[in-house]
Design a protein that fits this description.
The complex is a heterodimer of chains A (316) and B (256).
Chain A: H1 3-27, H2 33-58, H3 66-84, H4 88-110, H5 115-134, H6 154-172, H7 175-185, H8 187-192, H9 197-220, H10 233-246, H11 251-267, H12 272-289, H13 304-310
Chain B: E1 4-15, E2 18-29, E3 33-37, H1 44-51, E4 59-64, E5 67-68, H2 74-80, E6 82-84, H3 97-104, H4 113-118, H5 122-140, H6 156-169, E7 174-178, H7 186-203, E8 206-210, H8 214-220, E9 223-228, E10 231-236, H9 238-243, H10 245-252
Parallel strand pairs in B: 3-8, 3-9, 6-7, 7-8
Antiparallel strand pairs in B: 1-2, 1-4, 4-5, 9-10
Classes of the chains: A mainly alpha (316), B alpha/beta (256).
């Protein structure tokens, strides 16, 4: 049997075991409702950070508008489920598609920009999305959208997260993913090697935005009310912190970053003003001692014990 | 006479008030090994950039394999069969040696996005072929034992070789080498000469190279073009070029 497919199955089995253990602990009440909510948030944040990592870490396009795409997915999702009684999965997919489409439209002009300029443009676009939503009466404006059905549960979050991880892992380990990485490494050389750089930048941007939209749908249906205030540019920065902390260009890093940041936020729930100070200190220390992030470009599947289990030969 | 692979007619490139290349005429036949020489700033790399679509010619036509390639993007030209190396090495330095080569197979991959994500269909077969062919190429360039090494950690000569290997992975008909021997010692240069000869035969390539090392140029090129101030001042066989008074003047100065 093919080694890559075998590795995929081992990882899938591992994922299901983790799910079963966590679900069991929740049903037994060992994990209380506060930490249950935070586990779900961790799952949603993993989708956000890993999809942002595809744009920022793998393709090297510095985007700061991820919360905006999340907002699009969230609002499209809640309008569909609340007002049109669309099934949850359909609403999630529609939210993802809407965010992806918007990412595609925005990507066409902005991805001509580089570095800081792209960061500023995407930052602005994220804010534009939020302010537009704030001014649409139909979705409640600044007061927020009410009476959202509470569909999201741990199983939804976990399995969509698992799907996202597999999607992005498989994408990155293919010719398409290599094209994206080549753009990050050296755009001129990538183009000279036959990579349509514009196409792949937009592809990465669209996929990243689509997953942010799906995560937005999950996020929204976890609460009874959502408001544009949940999707400010500060939120985009939090996702960026996750990616940078975990490691640009590493899926494991994205997971670790999302876990770490969400965990610290939850642990400091009673002292919210210290949160940003701690993140700032962490980032400064990181830049001094480990500028590539906790995991750099490395995946956990390429390390020690996992390497033995999964055997060599094109892991992850 | 062999079939013509590329023809360039009256190409000029103007940057503002500077005419970097003027009325450049050039042809190369299938299987030929041609050199492009000239003093610093003569416009040699500009010519390469025109051939590969990095710049668009201000005037003139470039025909490759019977079709015009003027106006195409660099990646489209690579897909048509022209691959190049760079004067200042441009490897994907944070990636492994193997991945550097694998990326260049990009335009020959047929599996789509869906097959990638679900890992079905042609994905496994093609990935396996790419891996095998890449390793074969690396062993030709004596880099197979360094396949997992990061490209930036290779010694300089090996990085030059890797760039050529990567260009070959795109399966070109015409290979453009921009100063392949720059920074190499005489021993490495000699090995490089042998290798260029060998890959030309093995892969059925046509090669155009820019070089300052006259031993290399005179040793392996069948025809040579000499550029000065963006104009061709001489072209012909190495022996003719060596004796050409214009060329000697361009290189040594004075009123020879």
């Amino acid at each position: 049997m093919n080694l890559l497919r075998r590795n995929d199955l081992i990882m899938l089995a591992f994922g299901i075991v983790v799910f079963a253990v966590l679900q069991g602990l929740m049903e037994e009440g060992i994990i209380g409702s506060f930490w249950k909510l935070n586990l779900m948030l961790i799952g949603i944040n993993i989708i956000m950070s890993v999809s942002l990592n595809l744009i920022n870490g793998y393709t090297g396009q510095f985007s700061l508008g991820h919360a905006g795409f999340m907002a699009v997915g969230a609002y499209v999702g809640v309008v569909l489920t609340t007002n049109f009684h669309v099934p949850f999965l359909g609403a999630l997919l529609a939210g993802g598609a809407a965010a992806g489409f918007l990412g595609f439209l925005i990507g066409l002009p902005t991805l001509r920009l580089r570095g800081d300029y792209l960061a500023i443009a995407t930052l602005g676009l994220g804010e534009i999305i939020r302010i537009v939503i704030m001014n649409i009466e139909y979705v409640g404006g600044a007061a927020g959208f009410r009476n959202i059905p509470h569909y999201t549960n741990f199983a939804w979050v976990f399995f969509i997260m698992l799907f996202t991880l597999f999607f992005i892992k498989n994408f990155v380990n293919s010719s398409h993913g290599r094209a994206c990485i080549a753009i990050r490494e050296n755009e001129i050389a990538a183009e000279a090697m036959g990579v349509n750089t514009t196409k792949y930048k937009i592809m990465a941007f669209t996929i990243g935005a689509a997953f942010a939209g799906i995560a937005g749908g999950l996020f929204a249906h976890n609460y009874y009310i959502i408001s544009p205030a949940s999707f400010t540019f500060m939120q985009s920065f939090i996702f960026l912190i996750m990616v940078v902390l975990g490691g640009l260009g590493s899926i494991t890093g994205g997971i670790a970053g999302a876990f770490f940041v969400t965990f610290i936020s939850a642990a400091l729930a009673n002292w919210p003003e210290y949160r940003m100070i701690i993140f700032a200190l962490l980032l400064i220390l990181l830049m001094f001692y480990r500028p590539q992030g906790l995991f750099g470009y490395v995946e956990i599947t390429n390390m020690g014990i996992f390497r033995k289990i999964l055997k060599r030969g094109g892991t992850a | 006479m062999a079939a013509e692979l590329m023809r360039v007619e009256d190409v000029s490139e103007v940057f503002g008030g500077l005419k970097a290349v003027s009325d450049f005429n050039f042809y190369i036949n299938k299987g030929e090994l041609v050199g492009l020489i000239g003093p610093n700033g003569a416009g040699k790399t500009t010519v390469f950039n025109l051939f590969t679509g990095v710049y668009q010619p201000t005037t003139g036509t470039i025909t490759f394999n019977g079709k015009s390639i003027v106006g195409l993007k660099p990646y489209q030209i690579t897909q048509r069969g022209i691959a190049r190396t760079f004067q200042n090495i441009r490897l994907f330095s944070e990636l492994s040696v193997l991945d550097n080569v694998k990326i260049a197979y990009h335009c020959h991959v047929k599996y789509g996005l869906l097959e990638t994500v679900l890992r079905m269909g042609r994905y496994f077969q093609e990935e396996k072929e790419i891996e095998e062919e890449s390793m074969k190429l690396l062993s030709v360039f004596k880099l197979d034992d360094k396949a997992d090494e990061m490209a930036k950690n290779l010694p300089y000569g090996a990085q030059r070789r890797l760039e050529i290997a990567r260009a070959l992975a795109a399966k070109p008909k015409l290979l453009l080498l921009d100063e392949p021997a720059a920074g190499m010692n005489p021993q490495e240069t000699k090995e490089l000469m042998d290798m260029i000869r060998w890959i030309r035969k093995e892969f059925g390539l046509t090669v155009l190279l820019i070089e300052h090392d006259m031993n290399l140029v005179m040793g392996i090129c069948e025809r040579i073009y000499v550029l000065e101030y963006g104009m061709v001042i001489a072209s012909g066989h190495p022996e003719e070029i060596k004796k050409n008074p214009e060329v000697i003047r361009a290189y040594l100065g004075g009123g020879a």
